[in-house]
Specification:
12 strands; two-stranded antiparallel ribbon; globular; ten-stranded mixed sheet; alpha/beta; single chain
């Protein structure tokens, strides 16, 4: 069992941010300490919501309280996702430093949420630069989507060799492990989605069917699942296969139900025993 400090947004209704990442980690048997950067009624894709955004000081205050319990040394990993401001980003990186001071073997998994194909950059000004210059170099594991990989490395990748070069460039800034989601290269079929993981100079790809689903929160879930399986197995390839299988099962059930929200609770068996697995090949 690992202990994960997850610093992300949170919604009361639906599953994005911590509401998407925490339960899969718990279902796999890990202890999670959620720290919320926002508390909203629902995700912003609905066009209206209630709640409030917290600042970096609020995050630091919660971490201070955890530290006062004398337990930061038992924390194995810090996980972060969407950052509402650079102020919160600095609080996250500061928390990582505090955890590493208490437990030098602790790891930091950064999901560098910046944007996506079609939507472009959707974070506030300065966040993309903060991710590139501060958060990603501080991380052990990063989980960008294809759009974010290109943005972080200043490249446009259309082939697998180009993606591998961009991943290596990203690793050269600090992270040991990179997971690229929503990968779409020249040989990706129209009815499929690729994911790629790289570690130690090697890379692996897995391909799952395209479900034609547009929901929020799947990226938060796969970052958490990949981190959990990587910590458990010590293998990026094994973590890639396990995380891809679980998220496919989650999304398949969501699509079959016609739900606008991912069915995190209803699909929980997919986290521990995926109904379908996919071949992971070295590339």
């Amino acid at each position: 069992m690992a202990v994960v400090l997850s610093i992300q947004s949170h919604v009361a209704y639906g599953h994005v941010g911590n509401a998407s990442a925490v339960f899969p980690l718990q279902r796999l048997g890990h202890e999670v300490w959620p720290v919320h950067t926002v508390q909203f009624s629902n995700h912003t894709g609905y066009g209206s919501w209630t709640g409030r955004v917290f600042d970096g000081q609020a995050v630091e205050e919660v971490v201070d309280g955890i530290g006062a319990r004398g337990v930061l040394g038992s924390c194995d990993a810090v996980l972060s996702g969407y950052l509402g401001s650079a102020d919160i980003g600095h609080a996250v990186v500061g928390t990582v430093a505090r955890v590493r001071e208490a437990n030098p073997s602790a790891v930091y998994c950064c999901d560098p949420v910046i944007g996506d194909v079609g939507r472009g950059v959707f974070v506030r000004p300065g966040i993309a630069e903060f991710m590139r210059d501060v958060a990603v170099p501080a991380a052990d594991v990063v989980t960008p989507n294809h759009f974010e990989l290109d943005l972080l490395t200043g490249t446009t990748t259309r082939t697998l060799p180009e993606v591998r070069d961009a991943v290596a460039a990203l690793q050269s800034t600090g992270p040991r492990v990179v997971l690229v989601t929503s990968l779409d290269v020249e040989d990706t079929p129209d009815d499929a989605v690729d994911l790629l993981a790289a570690e130690g100079g090697r890379a692996w790809r897995v391909r799952t069917p395209e479900l034609g689903l547009s929901v929020n929160g799947a990226g938060d879930a796969i970052a958490a699942l990949f981190l959990a399986h990587w910590m458990s197995t010590g293998s990026a390839a094994d973590a890639l296969g396990a995380a891809a299988a679980s998220v496919f099962g989650l999304l398949r059930m969501t699509a079959e139900a016609g739900s606008r929200e991912i069915l995190t609770v209803a699909a929980q068996e997919e986290f521990v025993s995926p109904s379908r697995t996919f071949e992971v090949g070295e590339v």
